[in-house]
Amino acid sequence: MNVRPYTAADADGLWELKRGFELGIGDETGGEDKGPKYEAKLTDDYREKWLAWVDDCVAENDHCVTVAVDDDGEVAGYVFVLPASLGFVWDAAVLNELFVAPEHRGTGVADDLMEAALTLARGMELPLDRIVLDVDRENDRAQAFYDRYGFEHWGEMVAREL
């Protein structure tokens, strides 16, 4: 497995994993209406805007999106740490997303991606020396993974419809 910074050539593979990430959030956590809401947003327009945002983030720091690419050249996983300019959102480094394709889970790919994220975050100039992420309390697999890395609950996110 090759773990390296994302390039524009990875866009299709990254998008497919992003879809898997979003659909997993919708299906595996929350109420019955969460899945359809997440699926409905994954339009071609959303794809274009999201990939443009990825490009903007990568232009600021080429390591903020790291991909794991298998021997066939397929993107098997990714981690997305927001650039330091967005660190003031939570006064910390923000691990925006970490996702590994189901067929590559349990192979150490997530560990390699987490190490890349932590290395990047340690090099950032931040208000607090801390990395934060949002993980659903119902996502036991993710909870166990982050627990292994010493993540602890630090506040609670709440949301409401606009």
Question: Would you write up a description of this structure?
Answer:
- The protein has 162 residues and is α+β, with helices and mostly antiparallel strands.
- It has one domain (2-148): Aminopeptidase, CATH 3.40.630.
- It contains five helices and five strands; from the N terminus they run E-H-H-H-E-E-E-H-E-H.
- It has a five-stranded mixed β-sheet with strand order 1-2-3-4-5, sandwiched between helices.
- Strand 2 (65-69) and strand 3 form a beta hairpin.
List the helices and strands and how they pair.
Layout: E1 2-5, H1 11-28, H2 34-41, H3 44-60, E2 65-69, E3 75-81, E4 93-100, H4 109-122, E5 131-132, H5 140-148
Parallel strand pairs: 4-5
Antiparallel strand pairs: 1-2, 2-3, 3-4
Helix pairs in contact: 1-2
Organism: Halogranum amylolyticum
Keywords: Transferase
Domain N-acetyltransferase: 1-162
What is the number of independent domains?
1
Strand order of the largest sheet: 1-2-3-4-5
Describe the main β-sheet briefly: 5 strands, mixed
Gross geometry: globular
Question: CATH architecture, please?
Answer: 3-Layer(aba) Sandwich
Strand content: 15-25%
Rounded radius of gyration (Å): 15 Å
CATH topology: Aminopeptidase
- Text of the CATH class: Alpha Beta
Class by alpha and beta content: alpha+beta
Give the rounded overall mean pLDDT.
91
Order of H and E elements: EHHHEEEHEH
Q: How many alpha or pi helices?
A: 5
Helix content: 40-55%
How many DSSP-defined strands?
A: 5
Low-confidence stretches: none
CATH H-level homologous superfamily name: Gcn5-related N-acetyltransferase (GNAT)
N-to-C terminal Cα separation, in Å?
Answer: 42 Å
Organism: Halogranum amylolyticum
Keywords: Transferase
Protein name: Acetyltransferase (GNAT) family protein
Domain N-acetyltransferase: 1-162
